[in-house]
Design a protein that fits this description.
It is a single chain. With 389 residues, the protein is an alpha/beta fold. The chain folds into three domains: 117 residues, Response regulator (Rossmann fold, 3-Layer(aba) Sandwich); 165 residues, Rossmann fold; 72 residues, Helicase, Ruva Protein, domain 3, CATH 1.10.8. Helices cover 46% and strands 15% of the residues. The strands form four sheets. The protein has a five-stranded parallel β-sheet with strand order 2-1-3-4-5, sandwiched between helices. α2 packs parallel to α3, α13 crosses α15 and α14 packs parallel to α16. The protein is elongated, with a radius of gyration of 27 Å.
Length: 389
């Protein structure tokens, strides 16, 4: 755990640093408020000790700046000139506690423990709330539906690979459910209680992909008005899913390769390394070996990502699953929208099974929704001819 000490008195900040390091903490020091704020924006500190009476920028101003910048460290104010009014003001502005000088070792250690316990509790509560919100939302295709041989093979692969930290490359055509495979791998992994972060590499402009993945410092470029944590940092301890990685620029590929090799990154506009612990899953609808031959994809990155390869079958390769999927989507859509549930005639279902599904699962779901809206009391073969073919 890292702690920052902001105090204009060298003797106090150095003695406090020595005390904390003797107790096993990592500690940095800043000689004034401005330097302290700068350090707090660049580095993640669990706890910040901040003196109140300092020249140029006092402790109250530091507290205001940290709050405005969204720094979530526990800030403990220290002062030799404190009074009740000052302490109350600090607490109102977001300080965790207020300690008067001379500093007492036991009080310091107890306050640090209480502060870190609170930060940990808040972080855990936020994760649980986020997970609960995610589970409440009906995500299309959230359940793996299908009993065909290709789908059983995918499930077997997931069950074997999920408990490990092995990187997985998920391949398959558009709409086959690659995102679902990635999400299931995370849910069945040892990291399931930690963040799961998705990035659609094809949807982010090439000039912004590095900032999105690795973050940036304030002022790194024209629109960088404040520090931004990238997706790798956001996924620290959990899983990062890089969707459509075949569309990532070569420059970004090189940086991703470095993170995979060294488990550390540097934000855009900074030369400081940040350690990250992330399991990376990637997906693509492209043939990456062909992209390597064309010079569009790095071979070394391909080998880093493809420790395990899971190929998701197209809908045409799992025709036996279409009736199960149709009924699943009918239940799902009617529950979400309140529409009346409809049965599907046998000959109508056969027409859906016989259809060539270029858009795979995604197309099938859209077709089912269209039929529910436009059909009568039942979905008939005539409905299929009218609204599908």
């Amino acid at each position: 755990m890292k702690i920052l000490i902001i105090d204009d008195e060298r003797a106090i900040r150095n003695s406090l640093k020595e005390i904390l390091m003797d107790e096993g903490y990592e500690a940095d020091t800043a000689e004034d408020g401005a330097q302290g704020v700068e350090m707090a924006l660049k580095e993640k500190y669990s706890v910040i000790f901040c003196d109140i009476k300092m020249p140029n920028m006092d402790g109250i101003e530091v507290l205001d700046r940290l709050g405005a910048e969204g720094v979530d460290s526990a800030v403990i104010m220290i002062s030799g000139h404190g009074d009740i009014d000052t302490a109350v003001e600090c607490i109102k502005k977001g300080a965790f506690d207020f300690i008067q000088k001379p500093l007492d070792l036991n009080r310091i250690l107890i306050t640090i423990k209480n502060a870190t316990d609170k930060v940990t509790l808040i972080s855990k509560t936020e994760r649980l709330a986020s997970e609960a919100t995610r589970l409440k939302k009906k995500v299309y295709g959230q359940e793996m539906v299908g009993e065909s041989a290709p789908m059983k093979k995918v499930r077997e692969m997931i069950d074997k690979v999920a408990p490990t930290d092995a990187r997985v490359l998920i391949t398959g055509a558009n709409g086959t459910g690659k995102e679902l495979v990635a999400r299931t791998l995370h849910q069945k992994s040892m990291r399931s209680q930690m963040p799961y972060v998705e990035v659609n590499c094809a949807a982010i402009p090439s000039e912004l992909i590095e900032s999105e993945l690795f973050g940036h410092e304030k002022g790194a470029f024209t629109s960088a008005v404040k520090q931004h944590k990238g997706k790798f940092e956001q996924a620290d301890g959990g899983t990062l899913f890089l969707d459509e990685i075949g569309d990532m620029s070569l420059a970004a590929q090189a940086k991703v390769l470095r993170v995979l090799q060294e488990k550390k990154l540097s934000r855009v506009g900074s030369d400081k390394d940040i350690n990250v612990d992330v399991r990376v899953l990637a997906a693509t609808n492209k043939n990456l070996r062909e992209e390597i031959e064309k010079g569009n994809f790095r071979e070394d990155l391909y080998h880093r990502l493809s420790v395990i390869v899971i190929t998701v079958p197209s809908l045409d390769e799992r025709k036996d699953d279409i009736p199960l999927l149709v009924h699943h989507f009918i239940d799902q859509i009617c529950t979400e929208t309140g529409m009346q549930r409809r049965e599907v005639d046998t000959d109508a279902m056969q027409l859906l099974v016989d259809k060539h599904w270029t858009g795979n699962i995604r197309e099938l779901r859209n077709v089912v929704e269209r039929l529910l809206i436009l059909s009568g009391s039942r979905i008939t073969a005539q409905d299929i001819h009218s609204y599908v073919y």
